[in-house]
Design goal:
It is built from 26 helices and 18 strands. About 45% of the residues lie in helices and about 20% in strands. By secondary structure, it is an alpha/beta fold. Helix 10 packs across helix 15. Strand 15, helix 24 and strand 16 form a beta-alpha-beta unit. The protein has three domains: about 220 residues, 2,3-Dihydroxybiphenyl 1,2-Dioxygenase, domain 1 (Roll); about 90 residues, Arc Repressor Mutant, subunit A (Orthogonal Bundle); about 180 residues, Rossmann fold. Bound molecules: S-adenosylmethionine (SAM). The site of S-adenosylmethionine (SAM) has 18 residues, from helix 22 and strand 13. S-adenosylmethionine binds next to helix 22 and strand 13.
Length: about 575
């Protein structure tokens, strides 16, 4: 199935998508707002002042880069001209084209990626003055819309480039080591470009992709960098299996860090030692030091030797958060702390009974705790609250929904089993004319009312305590089922979809948010979550084709699919 916009949401044939223009504008704004030093500080927040100063001596901000999908290069040039930008000649891309071909298993001939370099008017002094735009034209009916959707969601190719005004092998190797060992970046390939006589090294951080561009050939630094890039996939089988067998230890180490609020403490006291953190948390200093070292090896913290600069006693080491570790901070928007506590707590216990689920096909959770997880959590307010917050923790998945769907003609959106209202809140904030209705089990209604109150939209929202297998409120223009169907087997899904279909008028739209199992062997978080559903919920993850069948049987046509962050997907279905 190709991705199509729902009726009423189609863009004029020759318009560049708003999401692409917004990304070009962000890249341009970055160049306008940053000199080399501030760009390094923003992109590599784990480095201290001294390290940033040293990096700044060797690097110069060169450009920011984005990949966009205009209907044609002419349409893109017209948009850029409107922004006072006149790109030079379009140069064919080799690297990005190749990466897209292997990522989406498409022939390179289908992917005519061009590169446009354009100067940025009013660029900041001491920084870059250029944006590099990779453009893959996606004319109507080209069949490339799914590639565009997936790339817009994942942003694999956006990067910021720095060049080395005075490159040599030693400097390049040292910069590469600093980025990987200290700044939490991963080596992400690179190469020698004989046409330009330049060596390019790529790095990926949790937030972004960086390029180091050095004139000349630096074979030793490049081959060390490529070895680091390949390290993950070339590990010995026994080494890889041993690492996998210790996965449960990682879950527990992270859960203990979350419980002790180490991220909150390290955010307030960067560089704190094990002894200082032990005093704050009332723990055993030497043992906490060993946990901190493990967390650093997992990439959640960076470790700094004591002030003598010669290694010192490990107990004197100070610790700082990486971007990954910061996600455990309790007050970060979209904090993953609740998920760490849930996966290291109740769901950890039930995963210990996975063999029961595999032997019998019944969920291990119910075998261990005596009931299905929804009634179990409902009886325990603290656990129910943790579950709601853990669901909201992956709300990054919902980010693009309000942009992808045109709600302008809708008046009422009904979120069926909307949890604590995170998605509905985002939709209502994005469309101020819209009213919402959230259907939930009685125990979850208060949490939703509070969360939507905090989001400032509760006055436009009705809260209905009910059971979606009995009935779903009628009268909505758009209905949402987010991460609901994966909780149930096909028979129960048919029942839920039947009640939703009963409530909906012909032609109205149903939005389904789920992780989709890939139809092939592509990696996806859905594969692991499918086992989680088996073990803990009694549901399953499904392929797009499987959802299409369930929807069709309940009276819906699946009309579009958009990829979302965190391997999520938005399926758009129309009531027949
Ligand atoms: C996995 S959560 C998803 C919550 C939210 N839609 C989201 O994406 O964050 C599933 C929700 O289904 C709700 N639920 C379970 N059984 C229900 C029922 N019979 N009627 C209404 N809601 C139900 C649960 O309370 C829970 O909040």
């Amino acid at each position: 199935m190709t991705t199509t916009a729902a009726p009423g949401t189609a863009l004029p044939a020759q318009a560049v998508a708003g999401a692409d223009l917004a990304r070009i504008d962000r890249a341009t704004a970055f160049v306008r707002a940053h000199d080399t030093r501030s760009a390094l500080a923003e992109l590599l927040p784990d480095l201290d002042d001294c390290e940033l100063t040293s990096l700044g001596r060797h690097l110069r901000l060169a450009h920011t880069a984005v990949l966009v999908f205009p209907p044609s290069l002419e349409a893109l040039r017209a948009e850029l001209a409107g922004r006072g930008m006149t790109p030079g000649e379009t140069v064919p891309s080799v690297v990005v084209r190749q990466r897209l071909a292997s990522r989406y298993r498409r022939p390179t001939a289908e992917l005519e990626v061009g590169i446009l370099h354009t100067r940025v008017p009013d660029a900041a002094a001491g920084g870059a003055d250029e944006v590099e735009i990779f453009a893959l034209p996606v004319p109507e009916h080209s069949g490339l819309a799914p590639v565009a959707d997936a790339e817009r969601a994942a942003d694999h190719e956006a990067h910021t480039a720095f060049d080395l005004p005075a490159p040599d092998d030693v400097v390049l190797a040292g910069l590469s080591a600093l980025l990987t060992d200290r700044a939490g970046a991963r080596a992400d390939g690179g190469g020698y470009n004989a046409h330009e006589n330049a060596t390019v090294l790529y790095f990926r951080t949790d937030r972004h992709r960086l390029e180091l561009y050095a004139a000349g050939q630096h074979a030793a630094a490049l081959s060390a960098h490529l070895r680091r890039s390949a390290a993950d996939t070339t590990a010995e089988p026994a080494d890889r299996l041993l690492r996998q067998l210790t996965g449960a230890w990682e879950t527990q180490a992270i859960a203990v860090a979350a419980e002790l609020r180490l991220a909150d403490l390290l955010d307030a006291h960067p560089g704190a030692t094990a002894a200082q953190l032990a005093t704050e948390t009332g723990t055993h200093a030497e043992s906490l030091g060993r946990l901190l070292r493990y967390l650093a090896s997992l990439g959640l913290l960076t470790r700094h030797d004591g002030d003598d600069g010669h290694g010192g006693d490990p107990g004197d080491a100070g610790y700082r958060l990486t971007a990954t570790g910061r996600l455990l901070h309790a007050d970060t928007p979209e904090s993953l702390r609740p998920l760490a506590l849930l996966y290291g707590g109740t769901f950890y216990q039930s995963f210990g009974h996975l063999r029961h689920a595999v032997r019998t096909g019944e969920e291990a959770f119910a075998e261990l705790f005596g009931e299905h997880h929804f009634p179990y959590f409902a009886r325990k307010p603290e656990s129910a609250d943790l579950f709601d917050r853990a669901m909201a923790a992956s709300a990054r998945m919902f980010g693009p929904v309000a942009e992808l769907v045109d709600f302008s003609a809708a008046e009422l959106v009904v979120d069926v089993a909307g949890g604590n209202g995170t998605l509905l809140g985002r939709v209502l904030r994005a469309a101020p004319h819209l009213r919402g209705l959230l259907l939930e089990r009685p125990h979850a209604i208060e949490a939703a009312r509070t969360a939507l109150g905090a989001a400032g939209v509760a006055d436009r929202c009705a809260f209905v305590a009910g059971d979606f297998t009995a009935s779903v409120p009628a009268g909505g223009d758009v209905y949402i089922l987010s991460r609901v169907l994966h909780d149930w087997d096909d028979r129960r899904c048919a029942e839920i979809l039947g009640r939703v279909a009963d409530a909906m008028a012909p032609g109205s739209e149903l939005l389904v948010v789920e992780r989709l199992l890939p139809a092939d062997d592509s990696p996806s978080l859905a594969v692991a979550w499918d086992v989680h559903m088996l073990c803990n919920v009694g549901g399953r993850e499904r392929t797009e084709a499987h959802y299409a069948r369930l929807l069709a049987d309940a009276g819906f046509d699946l009309v579009a699919r958009h990829d979302l962050p965190l391997d999520g997907a938005l399926l758009r279905a129309r009531r027949r």
